Structure formats: C-alpha cells, structure tokens
Amino acid sequence: MNIDMIRAAAKRLDGHARKTPFLSSPFLDEIAGRRVLVKAECLQHTGSFKFRGGWSAVSALDETTRSRGVIAFSSGNHAQGVAAAATAHGVPSVIIMPNDAPRLKIENTRALGAEVVLYDRPGGESREAVGAAIAADRGLTLIKPYDEPQVIAGQGTTGLEIAAQAAELGIDQAEVLVCCGGGGLTSGVALALEADAPGMRIRPVEPEGFDDTARSLLSDQIERNDRQSGSLCDAIITPAPGDITFPILKRLCGPGLVVTEKEALQAVAQAFLRLKIVVEPGGAVALAAALFHGDQLDGDTVIAVCTGGNVDPDVFAQALATLE
Amino acid sequence: MNIDMIRAAAKRLDGHARKTPFLSSPFLDEIAGRRVLVKAECLQHTGSFKFRGGWSAVSALDETTRSRGVIAFSSGNHAQGVAAAATAHGVPSVIIMPNDAPRLKIENTRALGAEVVLYDRPGGESREAVGAAIAADRGLTLIKPYDEPQVIAGQGTTGLEIAAQAAELGIDQAEVLVCCGGGGLTSGVALALEADAPGMRIRPVEPEGFDDTARSLLSDQIERNDRQSGSLCDAIITPAPGDITFPILKRLCGPGLVVTEKEALQAVAQAFLRLKIVVEPGGAVALAAALFHGDQLDGDTVIAVCTGGNVDPDVFAQALATLE
Fold it and tell me: Does residue B309 belong to the interface with chain A, where contact is any CB pair within 8 Å?
C-alpha cells in the first residue's frame, strides 16, 4: 500500500468521481474558534466517499475477472459505491446487507443496479457465510469495505484533493479530521497527505461507544468494539481497525477524537444551516470534533471531511430539532 | 449591459466567490426523463448566488464612494450577499428588511456585519422612504437587488461557469432553467450563455401566483404581480421584471415556466435525498420545473440553477414531509 497506488487510482477516477468542494462559513469558524474547512464528500456520487473506493477497486480488476461481477458486504454507503461503479462498468454486483440497515440505503443500492441479498444481523446470521456461498457459486470478486489496497487507494484520492485545495488557499499546516470506521478513508488520506502535504496531521474521529480506532492508537494494538450496531452513526460502525489500515494509522495519525451522538446531530444541523449540505450523523463526526472539541486540536486551521449524506428524513429532522 | 461587464466582474470575483459544482443523480434523471444537471448556487458564500452580485457591485465602486458604505433593500439573500461583500471590503452596510422576513435571514445579515433596519411591510410602510432618508444622511450608495448593471454582471458569472462546466461534459445544447425574481440572475446568465454557449436556451421559472416574468414574456411588456408576499418561495418574489433586465429577458429567453408551491417543496426534498444539498423553496423552482414539467422542455439535457439554501428548519421539515 503506497502513494503510487493512490495516484494510479486518481487517474482511473478522473472524469468519474467528483472533485468535491471545500466549503466554509464564518459562523462555523466562530463556533470552532479557528478556521474550519469542510471537504464535502457527501456531494460525491452515491452520496459518500465510498464511490471512490468502489470505482478504484472495480476498475483495477482485469477484464475477465471483472466481467463475472463483484460482491460486497455493507451497511450501506460502500454498497452504493460498489453498485454504482459496477453498473457503470457494465458488470453485475451482489450486495450482502443487514436486514436492519436504513431503508433508504437498501432501496438506493437496488436502484443503482445491484442485487441485494439481506442477512439477519440482529438474529446473528453470518454475513460471511451467506456471501461466501454466493461468491463461490458465481465467481464473484469480493470488494472489502476498507481492508483492501485498491479501496484504500480510491479513498486516498480524497487526500490528494485536500492537499491541492488547501495549497490553493495557501494552507500547508492543518489538523485533518476524518470520520473513521475501519480506517480505509483515514489511512488513504494519511498516505496522500504524507506525500503531498506533510505539514498536516490526520486525526481519526469516532462516535462514543465505537471508538475502536482511538483505543487502538492508544494501546498500540488492534482493539475491538463491544457493540456493532445501535448508533445513529451507523455508517462508520465497524468491529475494529483493519490489518492493512491499522499499521498506516499507527504510523501517521495523531490521537483519535471521540464525539457524542448528540454532537454528531448538532454538526449535521450546523452543516444544514451554514454550509447547505446534507450530512449523515456518521459523516458528521469529524465536523462535530472540529466544532466542539477544539481543545484537543492544534493550530489555526482545521479541515474536516464530511464523508456522507445518506440519511433518512426522520433522523435529519431529529438533527434539525437540536437547533431549537 | 454587456458580456464585457460580466467578464470584468468574473475577474473581480476570482478567488472570492466559489465556483459552485454541477451535481447530478441518476434518480433525478429518471424522474425528469432526461439528463438533469444542477448548478448548486446554494453552496455559494452566504448560501445564495446573491453574493456574486453583491461582490460585483461593491468591488466596482471607486474607493471614496465605497468607503462611505452601501445600502440595500432585501427580503434576505441580497441582504446577506451585500453585507458579506461590504464587510470583506471593510466598509459599512445598512440593510433595509421587512419585519416579516424569515428570522434566520435577519439574524444572518446582522452577523455578517450589516446594520439591519426593519420596516413595517405588512403595515404598508414604504421601504424606499425609510431607506432614502438613511442613505442621504450618511452618503451611502444604494445597491439595487436586480435592476443594476454591476449586480447583473456579478450574477452573470454563474452563466460563464455553466458554459464552461457544460463544455467539460461535452454539452453545448440544453435548456437552462433559472429561478426568476426580478431577473438579475436570469438576464446575467442569458447574456453569458449568449456569448459562451449560444446553443443553450434560458427559461425563467417562477412560483404560481408570482409569475410576472412569464406573463411579461407572453404579453411583451412588463406585467406586475398582484401580491408581493405570502409565498414559501419568498426569496424570488418581486413586483415585476426590471427596466434593465426585462429587455434582456425578452430578447434571449424562451417561455417562462410556472410551478406550484408543492412542486417546489418536492424539489427541495429531492435535492436533499439525491444531491445532498439544502435548497430553499424559491431556490428550487427551476429544479421543480426540470423534474415535473418536462413536457414543456426540449432536448435531452436540462440544467437547473438551485439559487439559494437559506431556509428555516420548519419549512425544510415541511418539504421532507412530501417524501412520505
């Protein structure tokens, strides 16, 4: 896993992924007590950065392998990213999703051309068993959500853009806050910034109760979450940092940050009010840390990646209610 | 009023206004029955395209005149655009606003550095009388919201970007739908596209009951609205097309389109769901026409400008409720 793979992915993504904008607001700067720049990956195709990894992985396959199709396990955003990328490449995709995933994400994944197979997560069914049988039967290639070099390479293109967009503003020093699940985006961005903006420091951000990465960085070994569901920040809930991602995180990241669910909802509301973007709670934890945990940050500029916007209207309404 | 003024404004805005992205979604294409590209001006500074006109007008003043300050009448978005531009130039601004304008817009305008003076719109007080007295007293320059060449020039920079962004996608033929109040944006975009993308046709879009421009284009003379308030699309409610804007609209625009308030709310909801942007009802009428009035459009591509995103949370919740 290295920077050359990220640059190669950037070439494959060129003209397919969006170069998402940097957004800002004096109102957010005031809350945070420093300059806040938001990388709005919720404006990416399929509503999250996962399209980058999906496209990178699908486009990296040789033609024969790709033509048989791909399979992915996902609570939602990775599913949509892989489905859209596969469909655009004209190949089939099967997505194994938990039957308690947000309705909107299941529907969207189907509409993007994937065959969705649901497994009984609350009932303890093994998604790996369900998926392995289908994959073997059809010769599908598994696209893992984060612990997969070509996926990390795709997510890392976000970091190349951050470095370039910050440089345009004359910024080469900043804390870069990334919403962190299994660490695919965080490790990819870390590698990209190590190469293109070495004055920046990456900080993974997680929701309270699902802070496996923050704890792993502290203990210097992979720690697991007790729970794997039951959070409004469902998009970034994973069991533990990955075997490929964690060594990168360990080498390049500053300490992890942890925000409450309420702070995530407040960040969703601020993004609505001040940036005019729709962010899901899991995609807003980095902004929440920028706004509400400034005491744990250094420097006068913080860059927060808003990673996704696939939120059900009732959860969004809950977030807006925090404004009252 | 000509294209050279728009190009000059683009130079003055460079590095200050955002080049807002083109967004799209296969889900919107499916509703519309053609390709839909959205120019997301809600992501502009201050949450609407009005920042462009405000910056253009303030930056065009000679230094002595500018230093005395500027004044504007506005129900909201123009106010924020002028206030932010004046503050960034280090000069005072006074904004005359109706006392029934959305609370959020009044608060934002103050926070952006303006002195807000409220007049009693429901009670019939003349904003012109209120404003004239203050302007005379302090030597302020009036920045009109649309019937002002430098404002039209600033809004027209949106059109230069549309032409360039469409060309990148290989598109030179399209209907370009613009949310239309007094016609500042619509006429500016029309002039820009006449020069840079002559294969495109501009179509003004208005809410039902406030279709002064559509009726004026039909009758070939300036027609007025009966009402000037009482719409969720408050951002684009004006008495009539302007004396400067209307001749441009007449020469360059196709027939106007009219959407219902409910369609505007549905478009707000679709922009939330599919594009992850926050659009106010008045800023969504062009998208509403693209989605729900395709029978009045030609060609396989429609470009809709989403002009602003300054919407109160309760109105946004009303829009999301249309999804159920």
Answer: yes
